[in-house]
């Protein structure tokens, strides 16, 4: 069957918040240490301790917002351990992630420096699980108060005169699990209490994000919205794509049986149902959609690479991950009325990373290339799009073979991104682009022959986007053949 897409170039459906393209970096495995922070004395080229190659790569995908310091780590993190002269900083055990020593060399000042280098907005996650209201309140004062106060004075003593602008602040992480094993009513009360002391100093206005549900815990959303929606700007949601079982074996990132391709696609597509069902509950308490759904952890989660520390969550990244990213981002764009931020887990060397490092070497993953191809949607106007796609039946679920997203940039360029999740068959697509002039069309494709095609330190360009010319223009119609397992980005000037 040929797949049909109708896009109306004159009908816009709100802005696609650039923060949908956000990232997440935790003190976990080799994400922060080695992946981002190598220290000033390292032989790896760095600026004030931060790797130059990684900064350059990340700048190229316009990371709009970066969540830190966790994850589960956030509810064990005591920010005062990570300020002041590095040689005096407390050494602690990272109990969640591998039981390794955390020397606190990467703390608040280093994170803010990284954000400056990346020209990205910080999103700080505070400690509810093992922290105090005072500790959280003082962190915000330390970062954002411009004047005479104990915490502002301490910041100045530590070398930073000006406060940092800080918008996004999360009040705890996974408080139903590693963040304190709480019940929703209890967390809702704690949220109300903690957020009271997350102050707006001067002109700095904090956007408060409450710890939200795990996957399909709709009761958590119900209770949080009922008890605290008026005190929050966003509610988080965490969902990982895991082909196997979380505890019994998630499945290999590379050497997987063919049917795991389909299962992975079906599980990735499940995020659509989760967004819609959580949004329906949110609509009940917030019909104006003032409170955003913030999907601040998503992505693939596979078994760790053989021979690596199981607590470091290091996995390879293949064309399958690229399809998961492409399908997910199309879904997020499509729900831009409620979804205002998402953060893929995690930026470097952990889970569905965009960048992998090995000592002084660095490679870009297929997922990186999807973020690069899709960056044109950031802060663009979403265009009305209807799609009739062939469906694939996977176990008892039906999912579309083709997903798509279209937006209009400020300069008038129309950008369309398409994914064909079918691992064996190409997809014929006819796009009727009403109201557009198709005289200047360019396209790129990301695809591969093998299901687990990936980049390695010896072969870093095995999977990368190339020009794509397999399309025909006829009036306002664009006909194309999407190769099996491909992500295509089309730009129309
Ligand atoms: O991203 C890895 C972990 O997954 C995070 O620390 C936690 O929030 C989630 O369970």
From TrEMBL:
<protein>
    <recommendedName>
        <fullName>non-reducing end alpha-L-arabinofuranosidase</fullName>
        <ecNumber>3.2.1.55</ecNumber>
    </recommendedName>
</protein>
<dbReference type="Pfam" id="PF06964">
    <property type="entry name" value="Alpha-L-AF_C"/>
</dbReference>
<dbReference type="InterPro" id="IPR010720">
    <property type="entry name" value="Alpha-L-AF_C"/>
</dbReference>
<keyword id="KW-0378">Hydrolase</keyword>
<dbReference type="Pfam" id="PF22848">
    <property type="entry name" value="ASD1_dom"/>
</dbReference>
<dbReference type="InterPro" id="IPR013780">
    <property type="entry name" value="Glyco_hydro_b"/>
</dbReference>
<keyword id="KW-0119">Carbohydrate metabolism</keyword>
<dbReference type="InterPro" id="IPR017853">
    <property type="entry name" value="GH"/>
</dbReference>
<dbReference type="InterPro" id="IPR055235">
    <property type="entry name" value="ASD1_cat"/>
</dbReference>
<comment type="subunit">
    <text>Homohexamer; trimer of dimers.</text>
</comment>
<keyword id="KW-0326">Glycosidase</keyword>
<comment type="pathway">
    <text>Glycan metabolism.</text>
</comment>
<comment type="similarity">
    <text>Belongs to the glycosyl hydrolase 51 family.</text>
</comment>
<feature type="domain" description="Alpha-L-arabinofuranosidase C-terminal">
    <location>
        <begin position="296"/>
        <end position="486"/>
    </location>
</feature>
